[in-house]
Amino acid sequence: MRTQLLVWICLISFQICAVSSCVVVSGVVGIVAVAAASYTWLYCRCFECCDDHWLSTNVTQLSLTLRSKVYGQHLVTETVVKQLHGHFRYQPRKALVLSFHGGHGTGKTYVSKIVAEQLFALGMQSKYVHFILTTTDLSDGIVSTNKMKLRERIEQAVRMCPRSLFIIDEIDQMSAVVMDTIKPFLDYHDNVDGVDYRQAVFIFLSNDAAEEIASKTLENLQNKKR
């Protein structure tokens, strides 16, 4: 009911909304002339929709942004951009899964947010970007409940927008049983229970192996100085 009311307000005021600006044309003249086909177009200019107006596959811009903001991590930049480019350029055979590992403050969440901001007009505020913190969102303690909660959230999101982005933080704290719940969504399946997950993107953030990564990085830096 609330959505319908907002839509009518939008139509009556001819409110044409963009991400950074909103042009309001006062008056109600011509409402009757608005064709049924224009309804969706107008609605999707006022409210976020799963279309090219709100979603982007401009990986070139993503590459430039990552290069300018992610200092000293060119390998990360090139890998992320390459994978996203391949995923969006061709018909993917499976969902894209990126896994970022490292200790606190190494830029895992930072890079994930940049990706979200470049792929979605509303960035992390987009209803198609889903940030899941394992230690809070899946802290029920009952495995069966957590499995159902995670499965339903992902399934409903992809039904609403096939190109949904999921950022799952502290995935190393997720039990293997709960993790197995989403495994079918990440595999080579045309659909799972009637839902096609192949266009979705999953980014896993983990502190696992943080010490090993830091040790290897330090070793590489020391070897370059010699």
Give a quick precis of the structure:
The chain is an alpha/beta fold and 226 residues long. It has 9 helices and 6 strands; from the N terminus they run H-E-E-H-H-H-E-H-E-H-H-E-H-E-H. The chain has 2 domains: 2-46, no CATH class; 59-214, P-loop containing nucleotide triphosphate hydrolases (Rossmann fold, 3-Layer(aba) Sandwich), CATH 3.40.50.300.
Number of strands: 6
Radius of gyration: 21 Å
Task: Please write the CATH class name of the largest domain.
Answer: Alpha Beta
- Supply the number of helical segments: 9
Beta-strand residue fraction = 5-15%
At the fourth CATH level, what is the homologous superfamily of the largest domain? Answer: P-loop containing nucleotide triphosphate hydrolases
Helix share, percent:
40-55%
Span of the ends, CA to CA: 69 Å
> How are the strands of the largest sheet arranged?
3-6-5-4
User: Main β-sheet: number of strands, strand sense, barrel status?
Assistant: 4 strands, parallel
| CATH topology annotation of the largest domain | Rossmann fold
